[in-house]
Structures are given as C-alpha cells and as structure tokens.
Amino acid sequence: MIHRFTQVLPAFFALACVWDGPADSEPRAVPREALVGVTDQGENTTDLSITRRIRRAIMAADGLSFSAKNAKIITCDGRVTLQGEVETSERGVLLTAARNVAGAGRVDDQLRVAD
Hints:
Layout: H1 2-18, H2 45-60, H3 66-69, E1 72-76, E2 79-86, H4 88-102, E3 107-113
Parallel strand pairs: 2-3
Antiparallel strand pairs: 1-2
Helix pairs in contact: 2-4
C-alpha cells in the first residue's frame, strides 16, 4: 500500500503545479516536458554552482522583495529556470542575474508578474 502511495503522490504534485487559474476557470494544458520543478535540479557540481551563484547575486541585490529573493532557481544541464511571483521592476533584476551567470540563451523565464 505504501509503495502505491509513493507512485501516486508525485503525479498529484505534478498536476497541482499545472493549475494556476482561479477556481471558476478551466486548467490550462501544459506539456509534461514543460513542467520544471525543484526535483529537476541537477545534482552535479556545475548545476549546483550555477544555482548558488545566481542565488548569491539575487540576495546581494538591494530593494528586492521577499518573494523575489525566494524565487525558485532550478538548474539542469546548465539551463536555468526561474519561477515565482515578482514585481515588474524585480523581474529584470532576476533575469539579469541568471543570464550573467548561465548565459543569455540558457535562461527560461517562468516568472509571474504580480498584479
């Protein structure tokens, strides 16, 4: 029984990550390969180093909100995905920090701008 639960639980969380709309709208379809989560973080030293350097740059930036400083940074095979909710002015700071470390074409911007 426990084994079946551990197989179903990750699928539940993957579906939960897809839903980002209000209760009265239909969930949007997102291709499975587009779903990136913290479990996709690379474990090799290069990916960990990239994530660490981006996090340090973001933490050193002045004037960022708590949400911006805690945006998800996921690095896998040198490609960086940024996720979270930020203010319009903060988005550029996070993207610049990630691009300076990983390279301009290696950053996937999945940040949401707060209303």
